[in-house]
Specification:
Two copies of one chain form a homodimer. By secondary structure, the first copy, chain A, is of the alpha+beta class. Helices cover 36% and strands 29% of the residues of chain A.
Chain lengths: 278, 278
């Protein structure tokens, strides 16, 4: 790191269920739903540059939401994001890159924005890029976020399931968030709101996992591969569901390894996105 | 820890400036203002008991807000709180004990409350006990919290200064929060709102420290001892102010030790109050 570079860490986020809420103002658009933030996440380093460029895991990359964040802050920067999470598999990597860029660029360039303002910029950038609707506000909060109302901090409203648990995950392939979001989401959203009502009545981890499984099935988002892995975890007495939107299974505790899968291990992450100590 | 005991950690919190907002409903009452959450905090362990009892650092203790939290949840428990923070010196120890009790008791007794509901219970307990107005919601959030609107999560609104920094603190004696809060707070609140407007315009650490110093002086809360220590830190080019309400000086970085004081060291705490892993 050079003297004027800054670094931020943003937790990964898997969504269990959600509903889509459109609005002309990208700060008001978003999703309701619930999921888990993860100790596996994205580290973003930002330093001043003559022209904006970006790397993801040391390879040149173009994440539209990141470019939009830098434009909104009026700066040109070199952005380097690194992550152990699978990309394009439902872990909110694009949202994390956008939010980490906002936090780190704010410090590098002394932009003087508040945390809510930076979250709003990253959320709007992600919505306008069509790559996500609720990851950024969840990643800004940490824990096991419940998104009660959609949108950036000024409009949205959040709660959380009070829990801290080990998590395992297994990715079977890639899946495009924007392809699903650009289709008809009416049925999906109807189911998502039903599940939210249930979780708010009983905000516990078992209820989150159960409503997530029901959502995946009822909204017709389960693939046969994911369904088979989830079934194996349940057969061993574990709790698992599908990450929205990715070909990914996540499980509480050691649910996947107990069912014989070679899964990645992490924990829920108690903090939201944060700058690293200078 | 026994099998059915649970443990939570709650960061300490020093307030730099504040204004008082009264309301009949303790969830709507509270304070606006800003401060820093600290990696030094309070660990609270809760286990079922025939009759409620409490210890603070292995001594029998009576913290009214803790008793009120257990009553609100309808449970009897043995509560053990431990902390390295000075008690009665402006670090929000009573709020931390109340919030940690709410989180840990919710798990021990399977109360099924959400995080917002637990924060609301602890906030109301603290307000009704007269021991604090804004610590609980700040401690639930973590980071460098700005309390934009008073009250529990359903009513309050928060933002944050995006920063992570080393902190030093020095306590010169005890001071009663309830004695100040039960007096006339009109002038204090007028000054506090002015400072909040300034910080919202420029949400940075230097502005937080400057507005905090101005508040302490203009609201006439500085004692000669605190003023002298703060002056010594400033003379060495450091940033310091007084913890509201305590005979305590807090400084950014190594401001106190550089001025020759034997201070405690910690960091701002990026997460809010949280359960510990079972």
């Amino acid at each position: 790191m050079t003297d004027d570079s800054s670094r931020a860490f943003v937790p990964g986020h898997v969504t269990g269920f959600f509903s889509v809420h459109e609005a002309d103002d990208p700060e008001k658009a978003g999703s309701r739903g619930a999921g888990l933030t993860l100790s596996d996440g994205v580290t973003v380093e930002v330093e001043p540059a003559v022209e904006t460029s970006m790397q993801l895991n040391d390879e040149p990359a173009a994440v539209e939401a990141v470019t939009r964040v830098l434009s909104a802050l009026g700066v040109e920067a070199r952005v380097r994001a690194t992550t152990d999470l699978p990309v394009g598999a439902g872990f909110g990597v694009s949202g994390a890159a956008a939010l980490g860029t906002a936090l780190a660029a704010n410090r590098t360039f002394d932009c003087g924005r508040s945390e809510n303002e930076l979250v709003a910029i990253a959320h709007a950038a992600e919505v306008e890029s069509g790559t996500g609707l609720g990851d950024v506000v969840a990643q800004a909060r940490g824990g096991v976020p419940i998104r009660l109302d959609p949108g950036a901090p000024e409009y949205g409203r959040m709660d959380g399931v009070p829990a801290w648990t080990r998590i395992e995950y297994l990715t079977l392939g890639e899946r495009s968030t924007s392809a699903v979001l650009s289709g008809n989401t009416d049925r999906l959203s109807e189911v998502g709101v039903d599940k939210l009502v249930r979780l708010v009545e009983e905000p516990t981890l078992p209820t989150l996992m159960e409503t997530s499984r029901e959502f995946a099935r009822e909204a017709d988002l389960l693939t046969p591969e994911v369904e088979s892995v989830v079934g194996d975890v349940l057969a061993e007495g574990g709790e698992a569901s599908m990450a929205m939107l990715g070909e990914t299974v996540f499980a509480l505790g050691n649910g996947l390894s107990r069912a014989g899968y070679d899964a990645e291990t992490c924990e829920t992450y108690p903090a939201g996105a944060r700058l690293e100590m200078p």
